[in-house]
Amino acid sequence: MLNPVVAIDGPAASGKSTVARKLAAKLNFVYVDTGAMYRAFAWLALEKNIDPADRAAISGLLESVKFELAISGGAIAMKLNGTDPAPFIREERINAAVSKIAAIPELRERLVIEQRKLRNLSPLVMEGRDIGTVVFTDTIFKFFLDADPVIRAQRRQLQGQADAITKRDQQDSNRAVAPLTKAADATLVDATYDDADAIVGKILQICRDKGLSQAKVDAL
Question: pTM for this one?
């Protein structure tokens, strides 16, 4: 029997990371931030002076990189060529590069394969931009978080980041491969004004109404 997956998609600064992390803790599922994976590869490309939009160069990088994923403390730990990129992936230069590298088909194909493998290890709360539409289309627990662009921009500023929210929305929604869009069977959640705990409560109730129960993943 397949482990259950709660898919949470949405645009930048919609609150999906906070909500997904809190929901995973409530359910005792493993939290997976797929955006961090794309950010990690953006970081690696920039470290190697590779244009994140250069498809041929990124494809070559994928052939040589050692990409490791593991579960640690209820979340995903990553290493690229033996280095943990987590301390570097929220830099402003990564914010500017991530949508470009996320449009590379070969990278998306590679990461989708790796993301699907995680289901064999544990129940998951996975957040990103194509979880319900591409990665786990079969899950019945699909949610799409959205919020007013002005509010989302303010959130980024409060986080000390300066994402161009409208530009990122356009890049993510208009890319040829796995564009950001709400799955037809996903529940739309307006995260403009409700706090994360209230949204988690709503999502948790919907999941339980659909038969989702808590899991024990403490040993992972």
Answer: 0.91
Q: Which residue has the tokens 């070559």?
A: 60
Rounded CA separation 132/80 (Å): 26
Q: Per-residue DSSP letters for 53-78?
A: T-HHHHHHHHHH--EEEEEETTEEEE
Domains, the chain = 5-209 (3.40.50.300)
Per-residue model confidence as pLDDT tens digits over 108-119: 999 999 999 999
Q: Identify the three-state secondary structure at position 104.
A: coil
Encoded amino acid at 179, one letter: P
Say if CB 27 and CB 215 are below 8 A apart.
yes
Contact 190, 146 (CB under 8 A): yes
Q: Which residues contact 57 (CB under 8 A, 6 or more apart)?
A: 45, 50, 51
Q: How distant is the alpha carbon of residue 2 from its chain centre?
A: 21
Nearest to 115 by CA among 96, 129, 100: 129
37 token code pair: 């994976």
Separation between Cα atoms, residue 125 and residue 205, nearest integer Å: 15
